[in-house]
């Protein structure tokens, strides 16, 4: 029998190795799954993970998918540091897309350099408002933020569907549930001609830097981290807990909102019912996988964007359902949680332990 | 409003509330043992897809329900292994279970979207179903609804007057004390988690075999999460779970009621009602922090490791 034994302290090494283990285990499980489905596992993995990024167009598409995930995940790293479990990045993204679209459509005849900033700002406000609702419910009424943010996700989705069927529907659109195309001055310019990569990726990278500075170099970031590590210590130090919860949620909501408006004003160019294939939920996995650290999140985002592209590729080339993406996401998170046990516990196989190894272990424990 | 309309609304209310009742009863037992499983949504979806596929391929609805339950239990064991066996954070593990279940169910079900089956038919009990107003609501339903009445009574009795019920409560209130007097904490929690999985799986099967009956991606539409809020609403009391589930069933069919009464409100806007109601309920029930903490099982969500 295998036994788990507390390490007595966190293992920093394991904290960083665990995501790598999780990735490898997901790949192995994926290969087995493909073999069971009658595919050549290596070729399938090649189709899934290498083919999407083997040319410049593919790399550009990777960035298009990465931008919204990165924005949501980096925002989530702020709230998760405060141990506020915002599961609502998806809803905040949708509201950002919705409010941003409403602004772009109201300004459809306007021209000038100020239109796009106004649209982006509206999107960020939309996302922040939606997260602000959860902050209000949590700080004023003590309502569990996991449940409220999830409910707000469903409400946001229904509001979005209502809007594209009603007030924001294109009057000349033959009754399709989508808005009119935005005017050129409301669209985010592309970075490289002939691809869809746009300035949104730069916003995301900028957000990563800003959040990094906030969390590691500012007093506000310090307060947020203390609140997450030990709420009573934060209270004792005189930090205003409710204010911190508000700020953390507003930051994460605004960034998710930016991700949403970046989709409608970027690659889509209009409001449609399906602006997000679950980017907001994927961002939760990314935030955990990246250990809430900016660099880790950046790497995890690229992996997640690749899984999204691989899912589409597998559908086109192998005839597998696109839901493969969700399956891989789930496996990744599960393996991560399972491997994370090694951070606080070490595995012992009692059959192999002798009095000598027991003594060694005891000495080590004492040294710690 | 005439009596037929009211009687029909009550009938639909119970029907719509049944999956919520099943999930919430399972989660209640789970939480009473101190385990918070946020993976209900994933277990429901797996139950729904497994039940539907089995019913479609074999033509046996019974087999469909059994497989739905089995799928729910299998998913709950996955949760149990990681959260109880490996002591992982229960919140994160539950979320992972939901994300995994959503993905896996969509993957399995992708070839079965939109395929029709003949769903479970209602079975009116003779005489009883003739009772005015309540007859249709309580005695003209299908077998799974009747089963939900029975399961409700069983869980009520389990916690009120059975010894195993007492053990579950002891483990949930103070696992260290329970461990000290020799109660098997982890085994009890595993069994509670498996019961939760079975109920969520059954609820999923009910959705795809009886209620809709068809399979669609994400067809549970947040019912797993609403049921979690229901347990909070019920203050962890069995009888209030029944009341809450039916009330939420009513909130979910309000758009039909409004349409029946001739109001014209966008159905997409009315579809937000159950979610808005969930938030309102959470606000009302959680406002008093001390009360909320006293009602919840003491060790809810905390991992238990015998050596610590």
TrEMBL record, chain A:
<protein>
    <submittedName>
        <fullName>Nucleoside ABC transporter membrane protein</fullName>
    </submittedName>
</protein>
<feature type="transmembrane region" description="Helical">
    <location>
        <begin position="318"/>
        <end position="338"/>
    </location>
</feature>
<feature type="transmembrane region" description="Helical">
    <location>
        <begin position="56"/>
        <end position="80"/>
    </location>
</feature>
<feature type="transmembrane region" description="Helical">
    <location>
        <begin position="146"/>
        <end position="165"/>
    </location>
</feature>
<feature type="transmembrane region" description="Helical">
    <location>
        <begin position="114"/>
        <end position="137"/>
    </location>
</feature>
<keyword id="KW-1133">Transmembrane helix</keyword>
<dbReference type="InterPro" id="IPR001851">
    <property type="entry name" value="ABC_transp_permease"/>
</dbReference>
<dbReference type="Pfam" id="PF02653">
    <property type="entry name" value="BPD_transp_2"/>
</dbReference>
<dbReference type="GO" id="GO:0005886">
    <property type="term" value="C:plasma membrane"/>
</dbReference>
<dbReference type="GO" id="GO:0022857">
    <property type="term" value="F:transmembrane transporter activity"/>
</dbReference>
<keyword id="KW-0472">Membrane</keyword>
<feature type="transmembrane region" description="Helical">
    <location>
        <begin position="244"/>
        <end position="261"/>
    </location>
</feature>
<feature type="transmembrane region" description="Helical">
    <location>
        <begin position="197"/>
        <end position="215"/>
    </location>
</feature>
<feature type="transmembrane region" description="Helical">
    <location>
        <begin position="281"/>
        <end position="306"/>
    </location>
</feature>
<keyword id="KW-1003">Cell membrane</keyword>
<feature type="transmembrane region" description="Helical">
    <location>
        <begin position="92"/>
        <end position="108"/>
    </location>
</feature>
<keyword id="KW-0812">Transmembrane</keyword>
<feature type="transmembrane region" description="Helical">
    <location>
        <begin position="12"/>
        <end position="36"/>
    </location>
</feature>
TrEMBL record, chain B:
<dbReference type="GO" id="GO:0022857">
    <property type="term" value="F:transmembrane transporter activity"/>
</dbReference>
<feature type="transmembrane region" description="Helical">
    <location>
        <begin position="42"/>
        <end position="59"/>
    </location>
</feature>
<feature type="transmembrane region" description="Helical">
    <location>
        <begin position="215"/>
        <end position="234"/>
    </location>
</feature>
<feature type="transmembrane region" description="Helical">
    <location>
        <begin position="264"/>
        <end position="285"/>
    </location>
</feature>
<feature type="transmembrane region" description="Helical">
    <location>
        <begin position="190"/>
        <end position="209"/>
    </location>
</feature>
<keyword id="KW-1003">Cell membrane</keyword>
<feature type="transmembrane region" description="Helical">
    <location>
        <begin position="143"/>
        <end position="159"/>
    </location>
</feature>
<dbReference type="InterPro" id="IPR001851">
    <property type="entry name" value="ABC_transp_permease"/>
</dbReference>
<keyword id="KW-0472">Membrane</keyword>
<protein>
    <submittedName>
        <fullName>Nucleoside ABC transporter membrane protein</fullName>
    </submittedName>
</protein>
<dbReference type="GO" id="GO:0005886">
    <property type="term" value="C:plasma membrane"/>
</dbReference>
<feature type="transmembrane region" description="Helical">
    <location>
        <begin position="91"/>
        <end position="110"/>
    </location>
</feature>
<feature type="transmembrane region" description="Helical">
    <location>
        <begin position="65"/>
        <end position="84"/>
    </location>
</feature>
<dbReference type="Pfam" id="PF02653">
    <property type="entry name" value="BPD_transp_2"/>
</dbReference>
<feature type="transmembrane region" description="Helical">
    <location>
        <begin position="241"/>
        <end position="258"/>
    </location>
</feature>
<keyword id="KW-0812">Transmembrane</keyword>
<keyword id="KW-1133">Transmembrane helix</keyword>
<feature type="transmembrane region" description="Helical">
    <location>
        <begin position="12"/>
        <end position="30"/>
    </location>
</feature>
């Amino acid at each position: 029998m295998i036994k788990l034994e507390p390490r007595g302290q966190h293992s920093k090494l394991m904290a960083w190795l665990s995501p790598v283990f999780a990735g490898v285990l997901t790949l192995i499980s994926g290969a087995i799954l493909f073999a069971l489905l009658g595919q050549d596992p290596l070729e399938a993995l090649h189709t899934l993970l290498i083919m999407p990024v083997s040319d410049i167009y593919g790399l550009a598409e990777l960035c298009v998918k990465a931008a919204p995930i990165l924005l949501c995940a980096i925002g989530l790293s702020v709230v998760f540091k405060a141990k506020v479990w915002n599961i609502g990045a998806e809803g905040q993204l949708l509201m950002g897309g919705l409010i941003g679209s409403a602004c772009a459509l109201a300004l459809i005849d306007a021209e000038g350099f100020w239109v796009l900033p106004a649209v982006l700002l509206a999107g960020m406000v939309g996302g922040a408002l939606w997260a602000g609702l959860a902050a209000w419910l949590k700080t004023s009424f003590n309502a569990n933020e996991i449940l409220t943010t999830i409910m707000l996700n469903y409400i946001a989705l229904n509001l979005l569907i209502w809007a594209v069927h009603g007030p924001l529907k294109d009057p000349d659109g033959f009754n399709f549930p989508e808005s009119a195309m935005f005017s050129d001055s409301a669209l985010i310019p592309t970075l490289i001609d002939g691809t869809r990569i746009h300035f949104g990726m730069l916003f995301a990278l900028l957000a990563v830097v800003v959040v990094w500075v906030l969390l590691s170099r500012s007093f506000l970031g310090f307060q947020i981290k203390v609140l997450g590590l030990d709420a009573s210590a934060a209270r004792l130090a005189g930090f205003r807990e409710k204010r911190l919860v508000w700020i953390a949620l507003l930051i994460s909501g605004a960034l998710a909102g930016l991700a949403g408006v970046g989709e409608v004003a970027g690659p889509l160019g209009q409001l449609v019912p399906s602006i997000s294939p679950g980017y907001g939920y994927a961002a939760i996995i990314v935030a955990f996988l990246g250990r809430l650290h900016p660099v880790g999140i950046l790497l995890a985002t690229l992996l997640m964007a690749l899984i999204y592209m691989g899912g589409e590729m597998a559908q086109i080339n192998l005839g597998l359902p696109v839901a493969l993406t969700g399956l891989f996401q789930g496996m990744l998170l599960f393996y991560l949680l399972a491997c994370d046990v090694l951070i606080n516990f070490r595995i012992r196989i009692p059959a192999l332990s002798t009095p000598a190894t027991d003594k060694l272990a005891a000495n080590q424990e004492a040294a710690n | 409003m005439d009596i037929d309309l009211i009687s029909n609304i009550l009938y639909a209310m119970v029907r719509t509330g049944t999956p919520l009742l099943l999930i919430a009863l399972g989660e209640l037992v789970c939480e009473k043992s101190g385990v918070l499983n946020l993976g209900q949504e994933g277990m429901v979806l797996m139950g729904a897809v497994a039940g539907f596929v089995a019913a479609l391929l074999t033509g046996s609805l019974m087999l469909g329900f059994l497989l739905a339950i089995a799928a729910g239990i299998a998913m709950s064991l996955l949760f149990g292994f990681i959260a109880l066996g490996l002591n992982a954070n229960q919140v994160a593990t539950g979320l992972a279970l939901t994300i995994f279940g959503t993905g896996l169910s969509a993957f399995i079900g992708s070839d079965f979207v939109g395929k029709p089956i003949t769903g479970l038919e209602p079975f009116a009990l003779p005489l009883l179903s003739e009772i005015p107003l309540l007859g249709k609501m309580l005695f003209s339903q299908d077998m799974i609804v009747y089963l939900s009445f029975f399961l409700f009574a069983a869980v009520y009795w389990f916690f009120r007057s059975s010894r195993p019920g007492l053990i579950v409560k002891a483990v949930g209130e103070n696992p260290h004390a329970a461990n000290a007097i020799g109660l098997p904490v982890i085994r009890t929690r595993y069994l509670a988690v498996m019961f939760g999985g079975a109920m969520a799986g059954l609820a999923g099967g009910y959705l795809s075999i009886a209620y809709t009956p068809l399979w669609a991606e994400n067809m549970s539409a947040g019912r797993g999460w609403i049921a979690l809020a229901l347990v909070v609403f019920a203050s962890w009391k069995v009888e209030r779970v029944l009341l809450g589930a039916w009330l939420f069933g009513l909130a979910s069919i309000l758009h039909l009621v409004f349409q029946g009464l001739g109001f014209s409100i966008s159905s997409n806007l009315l579809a937000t009602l159950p979610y808005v109601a969930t938030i309102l309920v959470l606000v009302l029930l959680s406002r008093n922090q001390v009360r909320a903490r006293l009602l919840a099982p003491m060790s809810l969500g905390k991992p238990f490791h015998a050596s610590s």
